[in-house]
Design goal:
24% helix, 491 residues, 27 strands, seven-stranded parallel β-sheet, alpha/beta, eight-stranded antiparallel β-sheet
């Protein structure tokens, strides 16, 4: 997620995006289905957002100007970002009398088509277009029936093929970008049919509410510049009624974290049964909704939830996991004011750089407070394993074995399974042992931006392969074992 009112010239922001090479950025969210694109002739009036009761999420429709889109694409082009763009799916629909949630009628695609044509004419690279936000199932603020939504996504696919006729540069089509409802999702996939939906996107906030919101006000300064008004910039002030005091416990509770696994399993089953040409994506996940928890979501402790989710979704064949948010709210990867990376940014960067696409079955016979995930290494031979210790008192000594499940004695120890005598280890711990710290230590050294605002080097420590991996209490370890001969990594 990305707030379009941010300072796009900030050097830290650019460096943080560039470091992923590439970082996927999804532009969309709650007000996505209220956005009008100021381009072409399909929209006559394009006002700025206003707070108004009875409107979607309490706001009127608002305008997105192409000069701001040009500025954003300069940043994306300079940093190599991979863009998923969320389109307004409510244009052309109307309310149903007696049902405040249901929206009916065909999607009017003219404004989206004009926007896509402008984008293509400028040479802006879009990885994927997604239709609507949280309109599936029972909806969040509004909903659309599955059959209608499927017809509209077929129309989106037609637009994409028309605007981008070259299959090699044609953006993917995603949907429905909402919370999983088995019957709705299955009907949606059956309606769209083969080779329409490239990514089946669903959202999850399995930690519950982070901040309990009492009231939200939208205010415009009378002295605001005309340029700012034209950009549709908004200033939102939240009055908080309290926070979820149990959130810090939830992120460290393996039994609680396991509850969402069934959803990932079910989404994967829907894809296998009704859309094998597509793939399962987590299109948005912030852990705790309502902007996250102010004392948890930006701290080291949130990594227990976040990195565990990356590992868990991979085991259920999910292709993409979009974190809410890059900037904005307590769950942001970057500090909203300074853009300095929070701990989860570095955890995500290590995952991105080290964990390959092939997922290996991983198990252990120790405490459930030790989580273990293993992939083929991304840029080297061998494997990379991630170990998450949610216990605050127990150190785990982990020996990695290659168990082919042929016989209990066929497992081969780590030191017998590779040509290298040393492995690379990345130990992530909080500063001063405080899991609610927003300073992350890598192998005992704080990760801080360089003097030139660059993301620091994240170098491993080398450890003798013959020794077990030591996972300290309240820590996360990622270890790359070169030369480890896992058959799935042979290709």
């Amino acid at each position: 997620m990305f707030c379009t009112s941010q300072d796009l010239d900030n050097k830290i922001l650019a460096n943080a995006i560039r470091a992923f090479n590439p970082l996927r950025i999804r532009l969309g969210g709650s007000l996505q289905d209220q956005v009008l694109y100021k381009v072409g002739n399909s929209i006559k009036k394009c006002p700025h957002f206003k707070k108004r009761d009875g409107q979607l999420f309490g706001f009127t429709k608002g305008c997105f100007h192409m000069d701001r889109w040009d500025q954003l694409n300069k940043l994306f082009n300079d940093t190599g970002a991979k863009i998923t763009f969320g389109l307004n799916a409510l244009i052309g629909r109307k309310k149903v009398e007696g049902d405040d949630m249901l929206m009916v009628g065909d999607w009017n695609s003219k404004n989206a088509h004009d926007f896509m044509q402008y984008t293509a004419s400028k040479g802006y690279k879009i990885d994927s277009y997604e239709l609507g936000n949280e309109l599936c199932g029972s909806g969040v603020s509004k909903r659309v029936q599955a059959e209608q939504y499927g017809k509209d996504v077929i129309e989106l696919k037609r637009l994409v093929q028309d605007v981008y006729p070259d299959p090699s540069t044609q953006p993917k089509v995603l949907g429905p970008a909402g919370f999983y409802d088995e019957q709705w999702f299955n009907t949606f996939l059956q309606t769209t049919g083969p080779n329409v939906v490239d990514g089946l996107t669903h959202h999850t906030y399995n930690l519950g509410a982070g901040t309990l919101l009492k009231e939200t006000n939208l205010e415009f300064d009378d002295n605001m510049s005309t340029h700012a008004r034209a950009q549709g910039l908004v200033f939102i002030f939240c009055i908080c009624a309290g926070v979820d005091s149990t959130l810090i416990n939830k992120v460290q509770d393996p039994y609680f974290l396991d509850q969402v696994a069934q959803t990932y399993k079910d989404v994967s089953a829907s894809v296998n049964l009704f859309g094998p040409w597509s793939g399962a994506w987590v299109g948005e996940a912030g852990g705790a909704y309502n902007s996250g928890g102010k004392d948890v979501s930006h701290t080291f402790a949130n990594g227990f939830w976040y990195l565990d989710q990356l590992g868990m979704t991979s085991t259920f064949n999910h292709k993409v996991f979009c974190r809410q948010a890059l900037i904005g709210g307590n769950y942001a990867l970057l500090n909203t004011t300074t853009f300095i990376p929070n701990p989860d940014y570095y955890g995500a960067l290590l995952w991105h750089r080290l964990m390959g696409k092939n997922v290996l079955a991983t198990s252990h016979d120790s405490s459930p407070y030790l989580r273990a995930y293993t992939h083929c290494s991304k840029n080297s031979d061998g494997i990379t394993t991630m170990l998450i210790n949610m216990s605050n008192s127990t150190t785990f000594e982990v020996s990695v074995m290659n168990d082919m499940n042929l016989h209990p004695n066929i497992g081969r120890k780590l030191e017998d399974n590779g040509d290298n005598t040393q492995r690379e280890e990345y130990h992530l711990t909080p500063q001063d042992g405080n899991i609610q710290s927003d300073v992350l230590l890598l192998n005992g050294t704080p990760l801080k931006l360089t003097e030139s605002s660059e993301i620091p080097d994240m170098n491993p420590q080398l450890v003798d392969n013959a020794s077990p991996i030591s996972v300290a209490p309240d820590s996360i370890v990622i270890a790359t074992i070169k030369g480890f001969k896992a058959p799935a990594c042979a290709n």
